[in-house]
From TrEMBL:
This is EXOC6-like protein. Residues 105-125 are annotated as: Disordered. Residues 2-102 form the Exocyst complex subunit EXOC6/Sec15 C-terminal domain. Keywords: Coiled coil. InterPro entries: EXOC6/Sec15 (IPR007225), EXOC6/Sec15_C (IPR046361), EXOC6PINT-1/Sec15/Tip20_C_dom2 (IPR042044). PANTHER family: EXOCYST COMPLEX COMPONENT 6 (PTHR12702:SF0), SEC15 (PTHR12702). It holds the Pfam family Sec15_C.
């Protein structure tokens, strides 16, 4: 279990690493495939005596985060935030905001190369900015709530 937690923590740390300033959706898709390999290994019962499914739980935070970004299910995340039964209960707004900023930085770099953005690219950029603004709002609300406790 500690090995799976270590791997999951290292992978999550990579996504949040401040030295990584830009990230593409294609990179997240590939990253998701890598996490899937880890989950499949964890499901293969590599340790006798460990209850089935327990090792895979080490990757649950990553899976929820990646699923949120790959499906772009922001309406569910934002609507259900703070609900203990939320679909993305394990996704922290700070982590989501960090990744959204990296995706946005990647789009900015792409925009400099291809100076004329299509309507689809402009819509995607607007959505990213909107979600990032709302994530920052959640972070500020969470911090204010944490300070009152």
């Amino acid at each position: 279990m500690s090995a799976c937690k270590h791997i999951a923590g290292s992978l999550m740390g990579f996504l949040q690493d401040n030295s990584v300033t830009a990230m593409t959706m294609q990179a997240l898709e590939q990253f998701s495939l890598d996490v899937k390999q880890c989950e499949e290994f964890a499901e293969s019962s590599p340790v006798p005596g460990i209850e089935e499914g327990i090792l895979k739980l080490a990757f649950a935070d990553l899976r929820q985060l990646l699923h949120l970004f790959l499906t772009k299910d922001w309406s569910s995340y934002l609507a259900d935030f703070g609900n203990a039964q939320a679909k993305y209960v394990r996704v922290k707004p700070q982590v989501a905001a960090s990744i959204m900023e990296k995706l946005s930085n990647s789009e900015k770099k792409k925009g400099k190369v291809f100076s004329s953005l299509s309507k689809n690219d402009r819509d995607k950029k607007k959505l990213q900015e909107d979600v990032l603004k709302k994530l920052r709002g959640l972070m500020n609300g969470q911090m204010a709530t944490g300070m009152q406790s």
